[in-house]
Structures are given as structure tokens and as C-alpha cells.
Amino acid sequence: xxxxxxxxxxxxxxxxxxxxxxxxxxxxxxxxxxxxxxxxxxxxxxxxxxxxxxxxxxxxxxxxxxxxxxxxxxxxxxxxxxxxxxxxxxxxxxxxxxxxxxxxxxxxxxxxxxxxxxxxxxxxxxxxxxxxxxxxxxxxxxxxxxxxxxxxxxxxxxxxxxxxxxxxxxxxxxxxxxxxxxxxxxxxxxxxxxxxxxxxxxxxxxxxxxxxxxxxxxxxxxxxxxxxxxxxxxxxxxxxxxxxxxxxxxxxxxxxxxxxxxxxxxxxxxxxxxxxxxxxxxxxxxxxxxxxxxxxxxxxxxxxxxxxxxxxxxxxxxxxxxxxxxxxxxxxxxxxxxxxxxxxxxxxxxxxxxxxxxxxxxxxxxxxxxxxxxxxxxxxxxxxxxxxxxxxxxxxxxxxxxxxxxxxxxxxxxxxxx
Length: 418
Fold this sequence. Notes:
The protein is an alpha/beta fold. It has helices spanning 5-12, 83-96, 111-120, 141-147, 170-183, 214-226, 238-247, 273-282, 301-321, 336-345, 351-366, and strands at residues 22-31, 36-44, 47-49, 57-62, 67-69, 72-77, 98-103, 126-128, 132-134, 165-166, 187-191, 230-234, 251-252, 285-287, 325-326, 383-386, 402-405, 408-411. The protein has eleven helices and 18 strands. The strands form three sheets. Strands 1, 2, 3, 4, 5, 16, 17 and 18 form an eight-stranded mixed sheet that branches. The longest helix is centred in the C-terminal third of the chain and has 21 residues, at 301-321. It is globular. It starts with a helix and ends in a 7-residue tail after the last strand.
């Protein structure tokens, strides 16, 4: 697809034009949830409007056969959860057309500043959890220590209630509530890591790699929800997944089994059918992050194959049970696009379902109070333009040629070479 110089010039007017009527976007292919349909869309005051309601067209833009999707959503990442990260990595989200998301940790000490940075960067629809709750010997302590170069003078206690919030007993919950409230705005993340394996507790090699106890989880989840917060559970084992469902979390933040701990077998990560059905009945959503298996470079091909076979089994079980899956990546250098490609190429999931998960289901799960995720009248006029059909090749998703948010162009169409 080649854009005429006239068409390009008109599109660039979006940055400066002061209009009284509607903007008309013509000659594009628009996603309707099942296919791309050629047509025209009209935008007024940042929202799509029906053609019969348009009294005047102020600007008309020829899309010249581009394919339109709602912006992508990444419901699990960490690369925008601090002010420094926002300053240094926000442009990659706009460049990729990822305008909705959730940073599932961050510190209560600077979560507000990170959110303000996201607003300035025109990424106000990226949420920051701002409260990550674990045990004094739990994840992400080991990562936090490693980020300081493993220096012996860094005492774990210096990171408690700073890098993350420590809750070791039910009695700690009320006492730590002011810290949680200081950082939380909507989502809060709790950590479960092989809670069923009590041999990990007190073992030096697992220090900083554990999580909350059963008693804490069962008391903490309803406590947070009663105060208007949605709870996301980091889980690793099937038992963790079961505990999260029993406690009634809002989201499960990992599909069990993306990495098998030493000595563990498939059964430790296989979700029970009854648990999947209960998750569906409770409306619990699952943020699978299946593609993170690609990050473990020291895993043999045979081990990776076993992991992927179990991922397929768990994903199929959840889908059959009716559990809603959200798009996600948990890849610091990557994005939800990598996850979509992984699920398409290795899990062989349906392309239409994957596009809907990333552009319709997940934005609506993140912002249930807003009209997002569709390209029709009444919905926010946010969309990405692509030079080819994503259904034919998901790699097209890596390079949107334009990104529009509520009628404002964030990434203009690049000038085409002759």
C-alpha cells in the first residue's frame, strides 16, 4: 500500500487542524470482531459517530486500504511501573500501538509519580498496580537483591515495605493497609509461589523466591476487594492457581507451568478441570503470559516441548470451561505482540480469537466503565492502522503505520519512499 503525497499531507493535518465538524476516515478496512470490512468511520469529540448523525465533515482522510484495529492491550508487564521506566520506555508502547495495559507491580512509594508520567506521555490508559504484596522470603525479593548486584551489604530488611509490601501473617494486613492504599488505585498484585511445598520455607536456595501463605491469601483477597481494589495473583503451580481461585481473586497473573522448578513434574502444573470450572463460575480472568517460556535459554528442546504441551493442555481446558483469557506478555524487552505471535505459532490458537483478546476483551477488562475495544458509534475513537491484513500474518502487528487515541494522532503515517 502506497500513500499519495496529498493523502499523507491531509492526514498530518490531524496535528494542527481546529475543526467544527466530524473527521471522516475513508477507504479503510475496519475490524468488527470477525473480519475486516471496508468502509468509512466518522469521529467527533474523540468518539466514533454514526454517519446519519454527521452534519458536517471538516476533514476527510484517505486511508488507502489500510487495516484498522483497536489499540492493543498488554495486561501484564513491568517496563513502565516506575517514573524512570516511564521516561525511558514509553515511546515503545506508542510505536507499537499498545495503548492499554497494566504494570503488575511497582512501589507504593512512587506509583503516583509513575502514573503522572504516563499521563504526560499520553499513555493514561496504562494502569500501575502500585502495591505488590509478598512474604519476607518471597518473590520479588531475590530479583530486587540481584538488581543491586548481589552486594552483601544490601540487607533484605532494607527492601521490605519499599520495593514491595511484606505481609507474613493475617495480623499484618490491617497494619500494612496504609502502605497498600498509598500505592493502589485499582489493581493490586499478590504473590503465590509453590505455596504447597513447605520444604521451600527456610531453605537458603529459595530465599526471596517464595510467596504468601494460605491463611494470608484467604484473608487478604476479600479485605482488598471490600476496599474497592481488584486483586491479581502471581501463580506458578497448579496448587497456587487453585488457591487463587478458592480465594476469589479477580485475575490470575500467570498460566501455571511456564517454567518448571527443579524436581517438579507436569502434574505439579496441570490445572484441575473442577478448578477451571470454578474459575469460570466466579468470573476470574487469566493472564496467561505463555510466551515467557522463550526467555529461559538454558532449557533443553525436550524440556521446552514438555512445557509447551502442558501449556496447550491448560489453555484448552480454560477455554473449554469458559474462562476469559486476557492478552499479556510479561516480557521487559518485548510486548504483547510477541505473546500473540507465540500463541499463534506454537499454541496454534485461532487468529480471530487472539485479535479479539488483544483489542476487544482485554481493554474492556481493564476499563469496564469505558466504551473501548470496538470501532463503532459511541466508542472511543482509538485505533491502529496497518499496511497489511494481520489475519494473514501476525508479524504485521509489529509495525502500525498510524496510532490514533480518542481522535488524536500519536504516531503519524510515515512518509513512503517512492
